[in-house]
Amino acid sequence: MSNEFDIGPLTWVKDEIDKSLNTVLDSLKKLSDNITETSHLRLAQTHAYQASGALDMVGLEGCKRFCSELEHCFSKLEKHEIICTPALIHQLIEAVEALKSYIEALMKGARDIPLRLYENLAPIVIAQGIELEKSELFFPDTSVPIPKDLPTLELSDEDYNKYISEQRVKYQKSFLNWLQTKQKESLDSMAEATLNVSQAQIRNVPKAMWWVASAFAESLLDADVAELSGAKRLCRRIDQELKLLQEGSAKANPQFLKDILYYVAISQVSIGNVPKVKDTYHLQNYIEHPSDQFTGGHIDQSEIETAHHLAEFLTTVSDIWNEISNKIDFNVGDRQNAMINIDNVLITKCADKLTEQQSLVQRLSQVVVVDLYSALSQAINFLRDGASTTTHPVLIEIAAGIHMLESSLRDYLELDADRIQKVLSEIQRLELIGSGAAYEQLEHDRTNELDADTIKAVVAHVHDSLKVIEQALDSFFRKPEEKSALLPTLKPLKEVASIFQMLNLEVPANVANVSLRFIEYFQSAQFSGNQGEFELLAESLSMLGMYAEGMPKVRPEYETAMEAALNRMQVVYTNIKPATETPAEHSEETKIASIEQNMADSDDDKKITDKAFDDELLDIYLTETEEVLAHIAENLQAIKVNANHESMVEVRRGF
Questions:
Q1: CB 219 within 8 A of CB 263
Q2: Less crowded by CB within 10 Å, the N or C end of the chain?
């Protein structure tokens, strides 16, 4: 379990925080140029206060405390309560830069561990004549429920007061003995006394505090913890809290609880209540581990190479998922709710592939990428173990997750706040699928308005597939007798059709499917090599690419053009389709032709003129035509200089 921090609210105020901290830096640099001009500190103090307020709004308590200490230092420097030295100004500048790096790391998915800021903050606090304990930068969630199996003693008021007094005496004697002898028995007695106090509490808050106090006493078995001056002071504070409890004046003390939790968290002790307290409060998520990589946002070359290696690996997973999609019948009425079967062998293969690279993924420091990988694995594992049945929205979501993970790995150093927020949203959707909950969010999140990253991935995949198809068709058009040249077109064309079908885009999906029939016809013995059929197929495929570029809000003229292209292809295919097709297929094509003929008959009375119905639309078409003609001319010139395949494709696509 990671120490999850919702960066959504932070993205809203980050610009304001950056602006404030940059102003603080500018003021400090001006002060370093003229150390006697302390008026710059007033502006620095104001903007540190603004940053502190914004950080408080988003729940970054450690960062807020950091800014508050900066404010106090600026105030004391301005009032000449402490001496302004070049060394102190340098430390202040380093501290502000460290805070900026820390916030930037949070935006990239790092865990919120304010203890990382201690080394930069401590000199600032010490310069004010105050000592800073590490526990003051420890902010665990203390609102978690305590275990229900903690025992409770039912005592009368008289017995309770007597019992607490006895436990305090026991604690005092054991504490003094431990200071003198460092014996384990003394710590055991201290732990027993505080645990007894916990059992005498009826309310959960004090019961939890004294239960944790018993774990703190046990954590002193760790010699490194026992030697800390803060731990010894905390032992005395426990005695003071016992005195207040004995007098009946004890109150909730959240800071006291956080302090004792800190020493339990850093202890290496694994006996008694220590492990249970750590698990209950998830303490390991709030301290630094050797495996943690926090280097002020720096990512080394080996990690970048690992990310790119994983991106290449994801293409294999994407290919398997495309195979799964190609075997699915998308021609159903209610795609939002209709259950469909998926190939269990392929989904198992997909899940196994992701498991193979799990250990490599853990080397990445971008936590959002690691979590996206885990969420994707969780969702696919759920499909594998759930009788291999699912819905169309789930398939689309997982496809989007694969594309987003691949693009995040390729652009590993360019994950800005906006992209990270989208990754986090995708993680939530995939985790929802993996949990087995009813998945109804897609209809709003995906179908109505696809996000930019998903659109980018879809368009890129469509264009990559169309490029493969065009290259194969170019070879075939030059040598129609070489039927084998068409083989590379089948798989990518099926993938393009599947993409549009999953996105409920019927017209482009049908264009891709009819194009597939044309290619199957070209492969047959009946095909004799008709240039018009070549051009119709090439034009239709080019329009598919243009249609994808216009997503998600495709211009009306593109929609109209695609529908017209589909009608032309269906009419032509009806006339040239192989005689070997089944009667059912023939019947379907006949129906289509009949409908089209009826539509044509109903329009016989309409006079067709070569004139645009709308002057504005005509202007748009003419402008675009000029741009396309310029592009054609540019590529024709390139062909004259050096004939190459890419330029020829661009010329044909332009026409």
A1: yes
A2: N
